Amino acid sequence: MSKGTCSSLMSGVSGIGTVNSLINTLLVAQLVFCGPSLVQNFLCEISPDLATSCSSTDLSEITVYMADIILGTGSFLLVILSYCLIIITILKIQGSAGKWKAFSTCSSYLAIVGLFYSTIIYTYTQPTSTPLEKKNKTVSIIYTLVTPTLNPLIYSLHNKVIKVAFWEIVPFPKTN
How far apart are CA 120 and CA 60, in angstroms? Predict the structure, then answer.
C-alpha cells in the first residue's frame, strides 16, 4: 500500500468519525435532562443518554440509527470484500499445504471479526425503549476489550519468534 493510499484511508476514517461525533454531540447538547442522571453503562454512548432525556429524542434516534446503518454496514461490507479477495487469492495457491496454512491463518481472523460484528449488532440494534438495566454489559466489554486484545495476540502468535518466546515464558508440565 502506498503512503498516499494509507494517508487517504486514515484521513477518511478520522474525518467520518469526527463528523459523526460532532453531530451526535450537538444533538445531545440540545436535549433537556431531568430525573436520574445515573447511566447504567460502561461506555459513553448516545443511547443511554437519550433514555435519560425528558425532551423529544426522535431526531437524535433517527440520526443514530442512520449512522449505525450507514457506517456499520459500510465497514462490514468492506471487511467482507477484503476477505473475499483474500479467499480468491488463497484459492490460486498451488498445493494443498499452502492453502491449508493460509485458510487456518484466515480462520482465526474471521473468528475475531465475527465476534466483533455480532456483539456490535446485538448492542446497537436494541431499541432505546429497552430498559437500560436489561441491556447486556458483558457484550459491551467483549467488543471494547476482548476483541481488541485478541487481535494483536492472534497476529503475534503467527510469528515464529513470538511463539518461541511465549512458550519460554508460559510454564507447562513436563512429561517423562
Answer: 19
